[in-house]
Specification:
By secondary structure, the chain is α+β, with helices and mostly antiparallel strands. Helix content is 34%, strand content 17%. The longest helix has 23 residues, at 265-287. The relative contact order is 0.16.
Length: 586
């Protein structure tokens, strides 16, 4: 190495350098190392990783050496340290940091220490928002005390008002997941007597209600019986080996199952005859106001029949979605008068001169299409003037008709295709559905199977079913560690009255603190569209509750369902109660 020109006699290997520094540290001793004054700042670690400089019990011997890769950016001025000491007045009071030491000037370290202590005291009362789970639950964490918090208050610093009720949601839910800091153990291991009382109360439409304050939910018999009563619903047809809800897009669920009626026309006719009797019975109960509403779920669309007075209506109403041009033409051919609420609302918006860009662009495109259609009808006269009318192939009548119907065809299978039928036309719709051949699939896994009828009350041919409920306690990771979260999962065709009745029970049982993640059957979300309001005075909710007093629902649920729908074509996705006040998201 000495012969090489790049060799330096003072070069030392890294191991020699480390050995020299280790020997120097041993020769200096702990007294020599601690003789120089060091200004320590509370909450700030030294450059070397390890305990705080002023931590109690920290041994003076064997102090770790200074990290040679440490600098100002990754020690004192790191984002976490800077977040603790960043205030409006700290820039003037904080002393500059040079090479890991405070600049020596009188009272610089003391002033910085005092500012940092004051900042730490102020931040002891701050709140950190931490998302909890996919259903939108958020925890409010004040140091080490997490509390369930509504996501609605993340955007709003303080709730504007106390909301004691949430809007009615006419969409069908496939699953509801309740979470709460309080345990749901009262909902599991139901006794046979409690289940029997719940079934009896549901069949007789008797509602006792849970107490306003429940100290021990596990020992409250009324609560447990009421919970079983809320889980009951009526369905036709009933195939124990088949899940008949949902029906739209459920071909894969039916594939491979035993369907003996698929190739037996006589059996299909028997099933449809029995189904027609059940549908007629439901409509008769609806007309007599002994049934508040019911659903007809086919493999293509869903129909919601509602009694007079619900959702702000004056008579019986029916909403059908999604629809196609062929179905609407067939309804017109049978003399059914209906309207398209979402399209009418868009036209009204255009008439009022609203400047919504999307609506205006869509209408402008439609106007251009209309102009083109006019040209297609009688815009070929100029060909004769040029003498080339025989050389140009004109579009036939079928092509012109399809072009004119393009605007209507674009609505197929979209939320805007929802159809509203009111008054006596609902009876015509009932006959149309009974005689409609396309109501039942002619091929595929659902071939020959009648639509599913769902209702909150009993009717001819109906079978009593129970929603599945399961209580689980889980641990969720939050910033301070793992937090115990109690959950209650309810699965099945969850109708509007069921959701309201469950929240009424959870209100006292969970002490006004719970959240709910709502899983909507998407084709039914548009059933929340408001119906057209007439010039007649609106029916008072008290009158509606009195008229529907024997419909099988408790008065609070009827009062909620009687209010006009305000959700539009959206559905509730999250529901939260905190301090006995509701908040929700769509």
């Amino acid at each position: 190495m000495a012969e090489l020109g790049c060799y330096s006699p003072s070069f030392k290997k890294p191991c020699d350098v480390l050995r020299m520094r280790r020997n120097r540290a041993r020769s200096e001793g702990p007294e020599r190392r601690t003789s120089s004054p060091v200004v320590s700042v509370p909450g700030v670690r030294p450059f070397s990783p390890g305990p705080l400089l002023n931590a109690p019990g920290r041994s003076r011997g064997g102090v770790k050496r200074r990290n040679p890769f440490a600098n100002i950016e990754n020690t004192y001025n790191s984002p976490k340290k800077r977040a603790l000491s960043h205030t409006d007045g700290e820039k003037a009071a904080a002393a500059p940091v040079l090479d890991g030491k405070l600049e020596e000037r009188p009272n610089a370290g003391a002033s910085l220490r005092e500012e940092l202590l004051n900042t730490d005291r102020r931040r002891q009362h701050e709140i950190t928002m931490v998302p909890l789970s996919e259903d939108g639950c958020v925890f409010e964490e004040e140091r080490s005390t997490p509390v369930l918090k509504s996501p609605e208050s993340v955007c709003l610093a303080a709730p504007a008002e106390v909301c004691v009720e949430f809007p009615a949601d006419w969409s069908l839910k496939t699953r509801v997941l309740f979470t709460s800091p309080q345990s749901f153990s009262w909902a599991e291991h139901v006794k046979a007597q409690e289940e029997a009382q719940g079934l009896s109360a549901h069949c007789r439409a008797q509602f006792t209600g849970a107490p306003a304050h429940i100290p021990d939910p596990r020992g409250c018999v009324e609560l447990r019986c009421g919970f079983q009563q809320c889980l009951q619903y009526w369905q036709h047809p009933s195939m124990p080996w088949l899940s008949l809800f949902p029906r739209i897009g459920a071909e894969r669920k039916f594939s491979g199952k035993c369907v003996p009626w698929a190739q037996d026309s006589a059996l299909q006719q028997s099933l449809m005859s029995d189904w027609s009797v059940s549908l007629t019975s439901l409509y008769s109960l609806l007309k007599a106001r002994l049934c508040p509403y019911f659903y007809l779920c086919s493999y293509q669309f869903t129909v919601l029949f509602r009694a007079a007075g619900l959702s702000g209506s004056k008579g019986i109403t029916a909403l059908l979605s999604p629809t196609t041009r062929g179905l609407r033409e067939a309804m017109r051919a049978d003399g059914i008068e209906f309207s398209l609420p979402l399209l009418e609302e868009r036209r009204k918006s255009k008439d009022l001169g609203e400047t919504d860009s999307a609506v205006l662009s869509e209408h402008s495109e439609n106007e251009e299409d209309d102009d083109d259609e006019d040209d297609d009808d009688g815009g070929f006269s100029w060909l004769k003037e040029m003498g080339v009318q025989d050389k140009i192939k004109k579009p036939d009548s079928i092509s012109i008709k399809l072009r004119k119907e393009h605007r209507e065809v674009c609505l197929d299978h979209r939320p805007e295709s929802v159809v509203l039928v009111e008054g006596s036309n609902t009876f015509t719709l009932l006959n149309f559905l009974i005689n409609c051949k396309s109501l039942v699939a002619g091929a595929g896994s659902q071939a020959g199977l009648p639509p599913t009828l769902l209702a909150p009350t009993a009717f001819r041919g109906a079978t009593l079913h129970t929603l599945k409920a399961r209580a689980v306690n889980v641990k969720t990771l939050v910033r301070t560690g793992y937090q115990d979260v109690c959950s209650l999962e309810v699965t099945g065709p969850i109708m509007p009255h069921t959701l309201h009745a469950l929240t009424q029970l959870l209100r006292p049982a969970q002490r006004g603190e719970f959240s709910a993640g709502l899983y909507t059957h998407e084709p039914t979300a548009v059933l929340n569209v408001p119906i057209s309001q007439s010039s007649e005075p609106e029916t008072q909710p008290e009158c509606v509750v009195q008229d529907l007093g024997r419909c099988g629902l408790q008065q609070s649920s009827v009062q909620q369902l009687a209010a006009p729908s305000i959700l539009g074509k959206c559905a509730l996705r999250q529901l939260h109660m905190r301090d006995y006040s509701y908040s929700w998201k769509t």
